[in-house]
Design brief:
Layout (H helix, E strand, L loop, with lengths): L2 H4 L2 H7 L2 H42 L5 H10 L6 H19 L4 H23 L3 H29 L8 H58 L1
Length: about 220
Amino acid sequence: MNHADDLSFISLVSNASLLAQAVMLLLLVLSLISWTIIFRKGIALRRARAQTERFERAFWSGGDLNTLYQSASSNRHATGSLERIFEAGMREFLKGRERRLNDSGATLDGARRAMRAAFQREMDVIEASLPFLASVGSVSPYIGLFGTVWGIMNAFRGLANVQQATLANVAPGIAEALVATAIGLFAAIPAVVAYNRYANNIDRLAVRFETFIEEFSNILQRQAG
């Protein structure tokens, strides 16, 4: 039989032990889920950035705050994260002015707390599934290494019944074992790269949201005064 055929990827996987095949299958499933999250999270972050930029242009163009608030309230499901933060603060500010006309400090504190709560909710949504990428990136190489160690143990165990150990005897078993490590790296590397990139993008969005909260709080303070 041709040794090249013995060392083809399909042959290596099909000839591996059941435990090694289970490890490879687990890694492939993790990789598939990771790629699904990577594409979905990339689309979601691009949409969040575009919505943030669009609302910032509308907000800083000098438009009426009540008009922006009415627009955000009527289309809440179609708005972006920053617009929902604005809507939460503006709603609480208007309610506070109705209840406590002479206590501007309490009104501003209520608006700021509402915006911080909305900020936390939005960040929870934006950061969803990101820990999974981090887990896949950190755990997959070790899962692959486990499959490799198990395969190498089986390869050397098989040599016990061989009169003379040669490279031809041990090479297929070791190659089968190393496939698990290769698949582990295939699952881990994209997950780590995507996690680092998306975490950086999310941090930049969070800074923009927090900066807006402070600037909008100053605007509300001037209006309350």
